[in-house]
Amino acid sequence: MKIMFNKQDLSLPSATDPTLRIRIEGLSAGYAGHPVLHQLSAHIVKLTNTALVGPNGSGKSTLLGVLAGVIQPTAGELEHAGGRPPAFVPQRGAVGDTLPLTVRQTVEMGRWGERGPWRRLTRHDRTAVDTALERLGIADLAARQLGELSGGQRQRALIAQGLAQESDLLLLDEPTTGLDPEARERIAALLTELVADGVTVVHATHDLDAARSADACLLLREGRLVSQGHPEQLLTPSALAHVWQPA
Ligand SMILES: Nc1ncnc2c1ncn2[C@@H]1O[C@H](COP(=O)(O)OP(=O)(O)OP(=O)(O)O)[C@@H](O)[C@H]1O
C-alpha cells in the first residue's frame, strides 16, 4: 500500500526491495500549527526489531503515529509493503486507567479490529488472548481490574493487547518505561522472539541497552533523521553526544 501526501511529483518510483516492510521518503508530519517531522526518509526492513532513539521531543512518538496511520503526514511518501494493519501500543494506552476493565478484557480489545466490539470471540480469538497474556507473564492477573495494577503491570497488559492483534507489524512506544529490570529483559527477549516468529517490530526507546540489542536503529534529532543503521555503529559516544547536545 502506497500513500502520497501533498506530493507534486507522483512519478517517484516505489521501492522494489522485497526486504522492506516500510519505506518513507521526504515525510513531514506534526500537529495543528506544530510541524514535528521534517523531510524524513528512512526504511524499516522486514523481520527486524528497529529502535527509534532520540531526545525528548525529537519526534519518535510522532513517527510511530504516522507509521500506525493515526497521524496524517503533511508531505512525503509512506509505503507499507502489504501485510496486515499495524498493531500500535502508544505510550499511554488508549484505555483509561479508570475504566472498569479486567486485564483479560483489555487484551481482548486487541481482537476488536478483527471481530468488532460486540461479536462473540471465536476460539482463535481466545487463543490469541491467552497466548498474549502468557507471553507477557500476566496470565495470573487476567481477572484483575486494570486500574488496580502497578504501572509496569498495566504496561504489560497494553503490550499484550498489541500482541493479541496478531499483526505482522508491531509498533511500540517506550515499551519498557516503568518496568523493573527483570520485566525489561523479558520484553527485550520477547521482541527478539516475535521477530523470529515473523513479526516486524518498531519501538521507540530511551533505554540504550534495549536499543543496542535491536537489529537496526533510527537516530532522530529535532524531527530529522540523523542516521540509520546497526545500533553498534550508530550509538557511539560521539553520535550520542551530538544528538543530545542542546540546540
Ligand atoms: N498532541 C500533540 N499536540 C501538539 N504537539 C504535540 C503533541 N504531541 C507531541 N507534540 C509535540 O511534538 C514534538 C515531538 O513529540 P514526540 O512525542 O513525537 O517526541 P518524542 O521523541 O516521542 O518525545 P519523548 O521522548 O519525550 O516521548 C514535541 O515538541 C511535542 O511537544
UniProtKB/TrEMBL annotation:
The keyword Transport applies. PROSITE patterns: ABC_TRANSPORTER_1, ABC_TRANSPORTER_2. GO terms for molecular function: ATP binding. Residues 22-247 form the ABC transporter domain. Gene3D superfamilies: P-loop containing nucleotide triphosphate hydrolases. Keywords: ATP-binding, Nucleotide-binding, Transport. It comes from the Bacteria. Belongs to the ABC transporter superfamily. This is Zinc ABC transporter ATP-binding protein AztA.
